[in-house]
Amino acid sequence: MRLGTSSLSLLLPLRQSPPLPLLGRCCRSTLSANGGAALCRRLSTDGPVPRPATGQDSVEVLGQSYARDDFTNVTPKILAKVGRNLHNQSHHPLWLIKERIKAHFYSSYIGRWGNPLFSVHDNLSPVVTVEQNFDSLLIPPGHPSRKRGDNYYLNRKMMLRAHTSAHQRELVKSGLDAFLLAGDVYRRDEIDASHYPVFHQIEGVRLFSNHELFSKVQNGEQLSLFECGGRRTPQKQETHTLEAVKLLEFDLKHTLTRLVTHLFGEDVEIRWVDCYFPFTHPSFEMEVRFQGNWMEVLGCGVMEQELLNSAGAGNKLGWAFGLGLERLAMVLYSIPDIRLFWSQDERFLRQFRLQDVHQPVCFQPLSKYPPLHNDISFWLPESGESEAGPESFTENDFYDLVRSIGGDLVEKVSLVDEFTHPKTGRRSQCYRIIYRHMERTLTQQEVRLVHEQIERSAEAELGVQGRY
C-alpha cells in the first residue's frame, strides 16, 4: 500500500457496542432496483475465486481472460493477491477497521424509513477499464497518474484499479445518493515497511438535492444549488452557488470529524489543509495530531459537477472522501510493517479475534528475525535498449521485478548510490535490498539464490548491465 495514497482515492494521502445486524448486508441488497443490483452481480467477487493465470497471449483473472499487448505489466505475484479480499476476511485488522467505519455510519445516519442512509459496497471486482479508472474521474490524458510505471495494466483498455473511486460514477448512475465503497487497489510503488503494491481503501459519497441541502435553513426555499454565469474561484466551482458549497463543506467536515473522533477518541486534535484533486473542488486533507506529529488521514472535497452530470445526477451536489485502511490499522493497532497484513501466521491473526469490533487492541510483535542485506549495481539502459515496454527504465520497474521474485521476503529496497560516467555519460545505480522473513530466520545462502535471480532477471527484462 501507498500509505500516503492521495485519492479520494487516487490522489489521496496515505496515509463499544456489538456490531449492528445490518453489517452483514451484501452489495446486492443495497443497490437500487433500477439496474444497480444487476450491475453489482456482474462486478461481484463473491463466491469461489478462480486461480489467476498468465499465458503467452492472455491474462486470466477472476474467471475472465484478457488479451496481452504492449501495455501488459501485471505479474503472477500481483495476480495471486486478487481475490484475497483482506477487508472481507473476518477478524482481520483491515476488516475490523472497515466494520468500525460501517457501524459508525449505520448508527449515525438514518434514512427517512429508519434504515441506514449509507449503503455499503465491498465486493466489486478490482478489474476495471482504463476509462473507469481515469476518464470517469476527469483525469486528463497524459496525466502522470496514468503512467504504465505506476499502474498494473492487463492491456491498454483494462487494468487493476488504482483506487476505489473507479466505481464512483457507476454507483451514482445506479441511483445511489449515499454510499461507502471499500476494496483492494493496486499500484506499482517503492518497497519499505509502509508501501505495498496491494492495499485497501474506503471512500464515501453523499449527494444532496436542493430541498435536502436547504431544508433546515431559514427561507431555504429561496436558495439554489446552482447559478448561471458564475465563475470558478478557490472557494467554489463555476456552476455552484457559494451558499450551497459552504453548506456542503460544513456537512462534509462535520461528518468526517465525527468519524475520526469515533476512531481516535474524543480528545483527538484535527486540522484541515486545502489541497487539489482532479475530481473535487474545493478539496481538503484532514490531519490529526498523533504522538506529537500531524498525520494525514484522508482527502475529501466537493465533487466536480461534470462528474455528476455524466452520471445522470446533474440536479444534485455531492461530497466525497477517501482513506487508506492500512494506514488507520497501522496507527490504531500499532502494526509496524505493512507485510504483516498478508501474514497467515496464527500468532498475528489470533490477536485480532475480538468479541467486539470496537474493542481496543494493540499488536504484540512477533519475534524480530534478523535482516540480511545485499546490494545490486547496474548501468541503466541507454535509449532504445530496454525491453521493459513503451516507457524507459523507471525505479518502479525495478521495484516490481524485485517484488515478483523476492515476494514478501523483501522488507525494503532503497537507492543508495548513483553515478554518471564522466566520458560515456552512462548512468549507474546501486540499490540495497533488505531481506527479512516475518516468521523465521533467513540464511545468507537462500537469500543469495533469490538475489542472483534478481540480478539475472534485471539484465534480461530491464535491459540493465550488471556491475557485480
Secondary-structure class:
alpha+beta
What is the distance, rounded to the nearest whole angstrom, between the alpha carbons of the first and last residues? 31 Å
The number of helical segments is 12
Low-confidence stretches: 1-47, 385-390
Rg, please?
23 Å
Molecular shape: globular
How many DSSP-defined strands? 16
* Mean pLDDT across residues: 87
Order of strands across the widest beta sheet? Answer: 4-7-8-12-11-10-9
Q: SSE string, helix = H, strand = E?
A: HEEEHHEEHEHEEHHEEEHEHHEHEEHE
Strand content: 15-25%
Largest sheet, in brief, is: 7 strands, mixed
Give a description of the structure:
By secondary structure, this protein is an alpha+beta fold. It is built from twelve helices and 16 strands. It has helices spanning 36-43, 76-79, 93-108, 130-133, 168-173, 210-214, 242-264, 305-310, 325-333, 346-349, 395-406, 444-462; strands at 53-54, 58-61, 64-67, 119-121, 127-129, 158-160, 178-186, 198-208, 270-277, 280-290, 293-303, 317-324, 372-379, 410-420, 427-435, 465-466. The strands form four sheets. It has a seven-stranded mixed beta sheet with strand order 4-7-8-12-11-10-9. Strands 14-15-13-16 form a four-stranded antiparallel beta sheet. Helix 3 crosses helix 9 and helix 11 (395-406) packs across helix 12 (444-462). The protein is globular, with a radius of gyration of 23 Å. It starts with 35 loop residues before the first helix and ends with a strand. 41% of the residues are buried. Residues 1-47 and 385-390 have low confidence and may be disordered.
